[in-house]
Amino acid sequence: MVSPQDSTFIAGTYILQAAASDSGGVDEVEFLVDDGPVGIGTIGTSVYELSWSSAALPAGTWHSLYARATDVTGNVGYSDTVRVAVTGARELDVFHGTFPVQAGHYVWLVFDGASGDSLVGDARVSGTGSLSDFFWCDSTNFVLFQNNQAFTALDRQQNLTTVSVAAAVPAAGNYSIVFNNGSTSPRTLWARFVLRRRS
């Protein structure tokens, strides 16, 4: 499977993608959800694709996706299975994945929120060590932070290995989620954040 990646949040219609090749030629690539076929992919630029609607699946449920490729002589091969979570149509992915934070540096994620939205997510340090500082704030306070000036965070946690956030966005605007590594060793973090839109 090329897309989605494992542990992805999806909503509505999603483009499933899988790569397949065979020296004699590929006859078809079929996509399956929870072991049930949902359609035959068409070849795009370099991968097989299928537009799939998750609308029939309940929000908050997890599902298994994989692809089954058949070559022109009838041999069958399977992709890795990925697990995805179906979210409500009012939930947007801010970030999901891993990233490095070099020693003495910080990394930030940016999103646009509206009054009544909620930022929900988790992050953790992979391997050993901790993160010296985690916070999220509006764009004005992020500029103050970048200029080493006093700033006000909407939520701030220090010296941590894991963090969870479930907080309301106070007003419409641009926000930053900041991971600050004040140590002398690099850190690798995994994070998943979504923005839940107001009804």
Describe this structure as you would to a colleague.
The chain has 199 residues and is mainly beta. The protein folds into two domains: 79 residues, Immunoglobulin-like (Sandwich), CATH 2.60.40.10; 106 residues, GOLD domain (Jelly Rolls, Sandwich), CATH 2.60.120. Helix content is 4%, strand content 59%. It has one helix and 17 strands. The strands form four sheets. Strands 1, 3, 4, 7, 8 and 9 form a six-stranded mixed β-sheet that branches. A four-stranded antiparallel β-sheet has the order 10-17-12-15, with no helix packed on it. It has a four-stranded antiparallel β-sheet with strand order 11-16-13-14. The radius of gyration is 21 Å and the shape is elongated. It starts with 7 loop residues before the first strand and ends with a strand. The model has no long low-confidence stretch (mean pLDDT 90).
Offer a concise description of the structure.
The chain has about 200 residues and is mostly beta strands. It has one helix at about 140-145, and strands at about 10, 15-20, 25-35, 35-40, 40-45, 50-55, 60-70, 75-80, 80-85, 90-100, 105-115, 120-125, 130-140, 155-160, 160-170, 175-180, 185-195.
